[in-house]
Amino acid sequence: MHLTFQDKLRIIVIILLAILIINACFILYKINSNMIPDFIQERIATVQYIFLFIEIILGIMLLFYVPMILHQSLKPIESVFEELRRGKYDISIPEEYHRGPVAKLITSTNIMINNLKLFDKEKKGKILEYVQRINFIMEQTDDGILITNEKDKIVMINKHAQNLLGVVSAEDQPPLLDFHYEAEVKKFFQEASSQRILISERKIYIQKIKKHVSFHVGIIHDDKGEVRGMVFVLTGIDLKKLYELPRSEDGKRKSEG
Question: What is the DSSP letter of 153?
Fold first, then answer.
């Protein structure tokens, strides 16, 4: 049976109290000897009874009060760890608590928080750096790229895929299947998201550019092998046809005006 520190402390208090009570009882038993005058016996017995009463009261108080003191001492640390559990690192234990039985623990906790804060800052910086690199690559390529997460929501998409598929943006992470794709495109997305496995390349005729586009899909796994998203790559896009239609329409409107 595993005992907590609080339980162990209570056992120690109970043992000490039991020893004191046994000692007092032993003294009271011994003073009943005929070798000790009656008036001395009465005085010793009175003193022992008083001390026994005080010992019992103090023992009971320690039994319940010491855990309360420990709880109050550790409460700031508990609050800090609760904030850390929520992902908030901009916290620390105030200086007023850097005294008492848990002063060293509080100092170590603040050092740990500062290290976590530094690690979190560096981690976010690295993530931002990688996101910027991915965005740069996605915008420089001639292919359409669309990335979804484990909930089949669009988290990144470049301008070619946006224009070709009619996806407005990925700012609010819209669901992949919420848009009005052409029938074969939607069928491909449904198959990929439902099976969560690599499916073969598929050439789909896109009416918007009047050309077949190759659809590829890749699966993103974490270090445990769980699916964390998918990457869709659309190759063979005729960029001239993709972007000339809006411009020609704008030019027609201007000439008509």
Answer: B
Contact 216, 144 (CB under 8 A): no
Between residues 234 and 117, the one the model is more confident about: 234
> What are the residues whose beta carbons fall under 8 Å from the beta carbon of 10, sequence distance 6 or more?
63, 66, 67
Confidence of residue 191 (pLDDT cuts 50, 70, 90): very high
CA-nearest of 150, 145, 166, 165 to 216 is 145
Count of all residues that appear for the chain in the document: 257
Sign for the CA dihedral angle at 39, 40, 46, 47 comes to positive
173: left (phi over 0), alpha (psi -120 to 50) or beta: left
* pLDDT one-digit tens code per residue, 34-51: 556 666 667 767 776 777
Tokens for 141?
Answer: 């390529």
Cα distance between residue 182 and residue 186, in whole Å? 6
Q: Is 256 exposed, middle or buried (0-12, 13-18, 19+ CB in 10 A)?
A: exposed
**Mean pLDDT of all residues in the chain?**
80
Cα within 13 Å of Cα(198), Cβ side = 6
**Cα(first)–Cα(last) distance of the chain, in Å?**
88
Q: Indicate yes or no: pTM above 0.90.
A: no
Q: How far is CA 246 from CA 142, 209, 251, in A?
A: 18, 12, 9
